[in-house]
Amino acid sequence: MNNKLYGNLIFELSKEGRRGYSLPANRFGNYPVPKELQRKEEAGLPECDELTVVRHYTNHSSNNFGVNNGFYPLGSCTMKYNPAIDEEMSAMPEFSNLHPLQPHHTVAGAEDVCNLLSESLKAITGMEAFTLKPYAGAHGELTGLMIIKAYHESRGDMKRTKVIVPDSAHGTNPASAAVCGLSVVEVKSRADGTVDVDDLRSILDETVAAMMMTNPNTLGLFEKSIPEIAELVHSHGALMYYDGANLNPMLGACRPGDMGFDVMHINLHKTFATPHGGGGPGAGPVGVRKGLEQFFPTVSPYQGNFAVAMRAYAYILSLGKENIKMVGPLATLNANYIKESLKDVYELPIDGLCKHEFVFNGLKDKSTGVTTMDVAKRLLDYGYHAPTIYFPLLFHESLMIEPAENESKETMDGFIEVMRRIAEEAKTEPDTVKNAPHNTPIGRVDDVLAAKHPIVTYRQMCNNKQEQ
Fold first, then answer.
1. What values do phi and psi take at 183, rounded to 5?
2. Which of 97, 371, 449, 455 is the most buried (most CB within 10 A)?
3. Sheet holding 286-288, edge to edge
4. What is the per-residue pLDDT across 303-321, written as a single tens digit (0 to 9) for each?
5. What are the pLDDT digits (tens) for 23-66?
6. What's the pTM?
7. Coil, helix or strand at residue 132
8. Which residue has better confidence, 447 or 397?
9. Chain centroid to CA 362
10. Which helix (H) or strand (E) holds 448?
11. Residue 405 and residue 345 share a domain
């Protein structure tokens, strides 16, 4: 492969006068662009022939890692394969060619899909009503908190300005509360990783609007005290909010509505196998118990990301009510299989049965000096996407692994073998691990520098000096 074509920016491949197209002769006359709309200088677009452009972007696309390429055990994010049949259904012209401003009577089929998806989500979660309008999980969280806030205000209870969030929560929980104008109160975890009910009692009062929880929690542990927690929160007049990020292992096992949750969102792009990553598209339907549907806010005049909802409904139909019950148990089985196969070489801070995911605290042998970051980078050399690292914040070297339910034993065995090999390398040749990756187009980047001083624009060479 020509590394010059492969590694360079498209601007660096530009040669003056080259074109990848030719337009037919102008048959329509000249219509000048109004002066106020004209550029003051040339756009500075690259000049390349079509073949160079095709090779450039095709080669770069091979750097993208997705669940279609290989195992993607990204803890907390349930990176599932998106079945091809779901893509085919959403691509049907009867759905894909719709316009949101079409006359109402022309979109009856799409409305049926939305209604049937809502009915399915109600049955799966135990909620009374759903809105499909939120565009992402975090958007769903904000919507759910807006519902809770509106509920309290409708009763004239204006003093409820606090949201209780566990110390193991996803970062979106406190962020969503803050955006909603609510203050965050943290509740601690016990040594077993679950919510400390005694600490919860000490912070519950009449100023609390809601408690946000993920169940299983971010450590992959089921919150066994949830009935007691829900009763305590409700006894103080507050509501229970369910963060649906970890709904996957609950499918076929239990429903948030039956646990005592009043409001929840679902990440369709996690639990129901719709596209995930790259900044979207996402979908975060919000469900509520009976009596709260009147507070659904108009966060969008349309039905959210309809094509994503279409995929999710096709996924639910393809499984059926019998097979959807196998999702949670199989995800739990896969996670425990990997955990038990590796806990002799990776530190497991909280032992016992996990659900869909679990957290190691780095390598068991700390004397090697090999960190979780090193392990993650070395995995790239072996063709695996790294798990989530340094989250949750409860452990210094967190390495969070989540295999989805549809991963085969052979795939997991290959991952286990590589993880064990890296643990051995950490002892016998630690520098190999510390300097990884070795087989990727670039090595380790300076994450701090990239975050503080990102280069997001490019200008052609000027006075023999490249300007950004």
1. -95, 155
2. 371
3. 129-131, 286-288, 263-266, 239-244, 208-213, 162-166, 183-187
4. 899 999 999 999 999 999 8
5. 899 999 989 999 999 999 888 889 999 999 999 999 888 888 88
6. 0.90
7. coil
8. 397
9. 23
10. helix 447-452
11. yes
